Amino acid sequence: MRYIISLLLASLALPTSLALPSWAEVPKVMTDIPPVHALVSQVMGDLGRPELLLERGASEHDFQLRPSQAAALADAGLVVWIGPELTPWLDRALEGSGEARAQLPLLAVPGTLTRAYADDGAHMAEEGHDDHGHDDHGHEKGHDHSGTDPHAWLDPANAKAWLGAIAAELARIDPDNAATYAANATTAVAGIDQLDADLTARFATLKDKPVVVFHDAYGYLADHYGLHIFGSIALGDATAPGAARLSELRDAAAGGAVLCVFPEAQHDPKLAEQLAEGSGAALGPALDPNGSTLEPGPGLYAALLTGLADAMTSCAAP
Hints:
Rossmann fold
């Protein structure tokens, strides 16, 4: 089609460099996990659909790319991901692809609130500001559970900061649609503000009530909404808890120090069931911190946080 237009312009003796419009295309965007895919989907809107590497039901910690996904990654115009702190396999894939491409690691976005795992001091710091101290809940160091906690999407303040960064990066690559990206991001931020207000009211029923989760992935959620995570069953995502740790948690639950015990999607619920059984602590529904069981799309981020609120506050009911 462009060739035909060029011929027509040439027949009219018009310079093609002045007469032809911009032919820039909406970039092909790859994302790592469902909540990131949801945020990018909201910013892109009707202009295009980002691709999601992490398949439904898969774990971000031990995922392996299929050859077709590696090829799609190599062809991407932009990769939006949490960062190597969460998915080192993606970091290796990007390094091994043999070609530099635009990337947006969200943990490195200015203004992102980050925290260390509890065993490293449980602090939260805003980039460029001093660290703020937080209580140490006594978590033990486990598999990849040192340094920065990468589960930062569970703080809606981060999601709002990332929406702006995603819109800015897309606008840089695709300036023709900059206004649309910015407008979509503004709409999405307003939606998260409303969601946050609703969840603040709901989580108030669970505030300061101690709960046990499967692994240390909920620090951002707890810090933002004032929840009390008493402890985690597993030391890390790929580390089985020891007998001493389970015994300690069970004694605490039996002593009335724990209100609820929550299993987690993608993990065997038996340990949570055994911990809660006969202890006086209630067994809550399985939590899904990365939305692995949800339908991918722009609505997933709200569904993820709402699902966590549904599950966790159900234990606070009389």
